[in-house]
Amino acid sequence: MQQTSRRIHGAIAAGLLAASGAAAAADWSDNSIGYRYGTRFAEPYNSQDITKSIINFTHSSGYKYGTNFLNVDLLMSNSKDDNAQEAYITYRHTLDIGKIAGKDLSFGPARGVGLTLGFDWNTKNDNSYASKKRMWVVGPTLMMDVPGFLNISVLALFESNQPKGITSRYSYDTHPMLSLAWGIPFGSSGFAFEGYMNYIASKGKNEFGGPTSPELNFDGQVMYDLGSTMGMGKNTLRVGLEYQYWRNKFGNPSYVPGSLAKTPMIRAEYHF
Fold it and tell me: Which residue range(s) make up the domain with 62?
């Protein structure tokens, strides 16, 4: 099993390496630095509301055969979470199968079919769990025919962690995730609805031998193009409100304190 998992991880890594090389000559790209702030974050086994400031860098780009998405979050908690600092990186590469094959694969509400590969990586220096997550993802994607974009993916997750108290890296059961990601403009109003929603199946026993539960993570924001009104150029400066609903966070069952997050945030982004 471990050898098979290593082969899968190697194949995903090789695919990402090839894709990143092919994407070097991007047809379009967008970079942004953002900030968001909320006072009602939750962490498992912590019953208190946590205040966090989050600085992020986001890159998205497209080339002949697909798209790239990279997000780096730097999360800073208050004393309710040990004044912890966390880095969380998400990368996804979606290959457009129709463009690779030179065929129109659109049907019904879908404008195309893709293959998504990527990874998540984090490290956190709190005094309790101190997560060090590593996760590879791969699976098919439907690219829906909407203004902006809406991608629907079914991904296999290969996740491991090595928190405090665990002497070697622990791998969870391979498990599926239904993932939606979208960015829908409201006509020419300057407003847009953006975000993601992930439904993640149980990943078997956790590293301490306890049960895990399916989790639902919705994170959506309504953003306004303030830059256009200030003469800075379209979508240069964007501000808005964000809300995250995360049930059974990190797979922790509902009876665990802090496993349910209901977090409103303010958000601002500068694009370049």
Answer: 2-271
